[in-house]
Amino acid sequence: MLSLYQKYWRTAFDIALIVFTVWLIMFAFSYLYKIATPVFLSFLIFLCIEPLARRLNKLGIRKAISSGISVLLFTAVLLGALAGIGFMFYHQTSELVEKLPKYQTQVEAQIRSITAEIQQRSDSLPDGLADKLQGAAENIVKFGTKLATNLFNGTVGFVSSFSSFVLNFSIALILAYFLSVEIDMWKRLAGQRSPKTLKTAFTFLRENVFRGIGAYLKSQLKLISITFLVILIALLALQVNNALTIALLAAFFDVLPLLGVSTLFIPWILYLFIVGQTGLAIWLTALLLVVTLTRQFLEPRITGQTVGVSAFTMLAFMMVSLSFFGFAGLILAPILMILLKALYDQGYFHRWIRWPKEEFIVSPFHPSASGTTVPGAPLPPDPSDEARP
């Protein structure tokens, strides 16, 4: 055991130092996000409004005016879309919440009918077993109804009362406008006053991480859009009530790590089987299989080809980050994962982490053949060629 520690203590120390650095970044970001949410939102809004503002500026319009036009158009489009979708979602979800007690009554009545039929046809059931089964089933139904009611009420409350978000978003719009007006000045100041080390780090982030983040967001947006459209079209074809709300909820669950549309569809399908709507239940089961298989088929190709990080690794890291750092950790997790993947592909882990050479034929931290490198960027030196302490 002592020999194992002697061989790997340097490796363990280097890995622990990298893990601590990642944790420190996550902690600092989560703290800053809590106290400066509008600032982070302003950067996101800036990325949306700057292309139009830059184009208008090239046409001869002053940057202050072009940025103002871009902000106004962005706000009008966003508020219009949110108002329309939010109203329909709120209306349909409220109706669904009101009908949940009715659905509960139907399920309990169906369970009592099934239990009575089983009891009549079979004399081998022990005394009291049917009543216990019926009571257990009714308790499960009540728990599911309560859980669904809380979920829908929470969703409705989130949609109907988001005053804090409106305040943060309004401040972020103002900050994004001034950032768009002053962006040239900030770029010039950063180019003149920043140290070379910071410039090198920013170049690495821009060429490896920022592009990866954009690719990751585009890939997730594609997957969610496909899920939403497939479910919406299928529900409309099946003439299901509240199709838009259900499709939006499915898209929302599709965003959340390790949940997916099954969280919504499986209880719904079980309910339909219990109340006797077998035909619709079979169609929804087929729809769930189609959506799941489609995502499983497309996700490795869309996400893997653009980001290069496996879905399991990404989702696992997002879940851990969400547990430790909340919503801010969920936001930063894909960024850090893409950064770590870029550092590995560029050979930095191979250079930073010391390892016992006699234990490996090839360094476990050496970038694989499939790793991507920036054209013209030299691979960091191999530490195995240097004397180690």
TrEMBL record:
Q: Where found?
A: Membrane
* InterPro entries membership: AI-2E-like, YtvI-like
The segment annotated Disordered runs over 370-389
Task: Give TM segment ranges.
Answer: 12-29, 65-90, 156-179, 221-240, 246-273, 280-298, 318-344
What is this entry's stated membrane topology?
Answer: Multi-pass membrane protein
Pfam families with a match to the protein in the record:
AI-2E_transport (PF01594)
What highest taxon heads this organism's lineage? Bacteria
For this protein, the record's NCBIfam families field holds: spore_ytvI
Q: What is this protein called?
A: Sporulation integral membrane protein YtvI
Q: Which organism is it from?
A: Cohnella hashimotonis
Question: Gene for this protein?
Answer: ytvI
